[in-house]
Amino acid sequence: MEYILYEQKGEYAILTINREKALNALNSQVLEEISTALDEINSDEVRVLIVTGAGAKAFVAGADIGEMSTLTKAEGEAFGKKGNDVFRRLETLPIPVIAAVNGFALGGGCELAMSCDIRLCSDNAVFGQPEAGLGITPGFGGTQRLARLVGAGMAKQLIYTARNIKAEEALRIGLVNAVYAQEELLPAAEKMASVIAKNAPIAVRNCKKAINDGLEASMDEAIVIEEKLFGDCFETEDQKYGMAFFLDKNKEKVKEPFKNC
Ligand code: DAK
């Protein structure tokens, strides 16, 4: 792969968009390579994925404006579908995905971050959906995910004005979970990934599915989704071990890693 670095570090992996000269802008090749990298995740071993951008300036500065500039209507729709398919794959990846947003996250970059489960960012991060200023709408799910994350009113304000916001404002409106000094961002994401990876993997995956699927359903349907995923956990060794460990009064006993079964 030319534009994607993928590194497995024990129980988590880091996917880096590595097209620094163009501020990691998403062209068709980058989108295809993200998809290939997702195919290659070893799902028996990797429990959390971190997504970040190469360099100190940008996470992803958007979809590639050069590539988009000459698209026809049909090509535009096809490009939108390519991005949407990859982002939806990330959103529904069975394991949690943390975006470590290390700079500009504009247009498709903001949309990429929003398709991850958790967003951490550096203090130089800048978020925005500048598409209306380019004569287009957000095309990789921005109109949908931003409204779900920060509420329809704030999403409409940001999208209609095409105004960029800094890390602190992104934190205040709930677009990101936490802000770090730049050099602390990746370590913080890795620390969070390690903490998540220590919990029972099947339970964590079921939590992700329950939250994602439940948000798309009515409350009556959503609690049934939760009940089913809760019930499934009782067929796992990890549930038996986790509860037996709690009930064991031997304080000397050391908790063993969950076995993912
Ligand atoms: N695309 C292509 N190249 C980009 C780019 C981008 N989005 N962003 C930056 N670059 C390139 C620059 O052209 C420059 O290349 P060279 O001139 O060196 O060859 C290099 O990266 C460095 O950028 P700058 O020289 O501009 O760096 P500055 O520090 O001066 O400025 C900046 C940084 C992030 C403020 C600026 O680069 C910028 O404004 N970039 C564009 C940001 C932007 O507007 N992003 C949103 C793109 S629109 C859809 C599908 C998808 C989408 C919409 C619809 N459908 C199919 C419906 C998505 C749309 C978008 O994401």
Brief rundown of the structure:
With 261 residues, this protein is α/β, with parallel strands linked by helices. The protein has helices spanning 28-39, 65-68, 73-91, 108-114, 131-134, 142-150, 152-161, 167-172, 182-198, 201-215, 219-233, 237-247; strands at residues 4-9, 12-17, 48-53, 58-60, 97-101, 104-106, 118-122, 126-128, 165-166, 178-180.
Summarize the topology.
Blueprint: E1 4-9, E2 12-17, H1 28-39, E3 48-53, E4 58-60, H2 65-68, H3 73-91, E5 97-101, E6 104-106, H4 108-114, E7 118-122, E8 126-128, H5 131-134, H6 142-150, H7 152-161, E9 165-166, H8 167-172, E10 178-180, H9 182-198, H10 201-215, H11 219-233, H12 237-247
Parallel strand pairs: 2-3, 3-5, 4-6, 5-7, 6-8, 7-10
Antiparallel strand pairs: 1-2, 8-9
The structure holds 4-(N,N-dimethylamino)cinnamoyl-COA.
Order of helices and strands: EEHEEHHEEHEEHHHEHEHHHH
Order of strands in the sheet with most strands: 1-2-3-5-7-10
- Amount of beta strand: 15-25%
Question: Over the alpha carbons, how many angstroms does the gyration radius reach?
Answer: 19 Å
Helix and strand composition category: alpha/beta
Count of strand segments: 10
